[in-house]
Design a protein that fits this description.
alpha+beta, three-stranded antiparallel β-sheet
Length: 319
């Protein structure tokens, strides 16, 4: 594969290339533009440039920012390298940017490139088939999600990534399923399809997935409606037949505007004769059985004989 930057260098020249690359330049680019090794050494000796990685330079002496690290990593890894994992997902807008993360780059399996501080090098024999058609090179959006799944420590971490990526609107559960079909061995593969099905049904966060699994399904409660739109708002889980809304939020909202919005939403639910139960991360992850008891109590106000199952001998849910 030829360098992805070569056409821009030919069309626009070296100065434009340096500008578009956030003042990062590689030895290979300089040589292609007609520079000599002596020209490069002279800039480094004068300390008007600095080395970011071997053969990759910043054309200034200030701090190296995150965007500069991204370009420097790609140039260091070679002509057939592409952003992958969290780095590609950030570039696609699938997950929130985090400048503290290392840069992830994937290269073909037959190549060897040494990892550097804050730079992770991955190898993939199917590298070429998983590239997005965009410059600078990066993994396809769905493939980037699966990259992250493959290095996630737990299924919950994998689920959180899938939920965040799908909520971005840049990738769908169906896209990830199709990408999964092209993969061989992959960590957490056995739980991916159920997670993707739950996200496709409307669960938008890890907390919503945990509520679905640990509160609803584990106690055989009725299945709520995910992301129901009413009064120009979306409710996390609604049980319209039973007059109940469940709101889930894993964050603490100290801002008055957000607190008022939550209260206003609860008040409008009351005006519709719907009860609201609100749970946070601790409630669902540490005491899901207690949450199930409360949900069941409200559901049984309209359906006294509604069945449910305890998840263990110690579970307080009663049929």
């Amino acid at each position: 594969m030829d360098w992805w930057w070569r056409q821009e260098l030919a069309d626009e020249g070296l100065d434009v290339l340096i500008h578009t690359q956030d003042r990062i330049i590689a030895r290979s680019q300089l040589l292609a533009a007609g520079w000599s090794d002596a020209d490069i050494r002279r800039r480094l000796r004068r300390r008007s440039w600095q080395t970011v990685h071997p053969g990759v330079y910043a054309t200034h002496t200030g701090p190296i920012g995150y965007d500069e690290r991204l370009l420097a990593a790609l140039l260091y890894a070679g002509p057939d390298a592409a952003w992958s994992h969290h780095t590609a997902a950030e570039q696609h807008g699938l997950i929130k940017r985090d400048d503290r993360r290392p840069v992830h780059v994937t290269i073909p399996a037959e190549r060897r490139v040494r990892s550097r501080p804050n730079l992770r090098i991955h190898r993939d024999e199917h590298w070429a088939n998983r590239l997005a058609t965009v410059i600078p090179p990066r993994r396809q959006a769905a493939q980037a999600v699966l990259d992250i799944v493959g290095v996630s420590a737990t299924p919950d971490e994998a689920a959180a990534t899938i939920a965040e990526a799908c909520q971005s609107g840049q990738v769908s559960p169906a896209d990830i399923v199709r990408a999964l079909d092209t993969r061989g061995r992959l960590r957490h593969r056995s739980v991916l399809r159920p997670i993707l099905a739950d996200v496709a049904s409307g669960s938008h966060s890890l907390l919503e997935l945990r509520y679905l699994r640990d509160v609803e399904r584990r106690h055989r409660l009725p299945t709520g409606v995910r992301q129901r739109q009413v009064d120009q708002e979306f409710t996390d889980v609604a049980y319209p037949r039973y007059g109940l809304v469940v709101e889930l939020d894993g964050r603490f909202h100290l801002a008055p505007q957000r607190r008022w919005r939550d209260l206003d939403r609860d008040n409008r639910a009351t005006l519709r004769a719907e009860a609201t139960l609100r749970y946070g991360w601790f409630d669902i992850t540490n005491r899901p059985c207690d949450a199930a008891v409360q949900v069941l109590d409200v559901l049984r106000r309209r359906a006294p004989g509604l069945p449910a199952d305890p998840c263990s001998r110690q579970c307080p849910v009663r049929d």
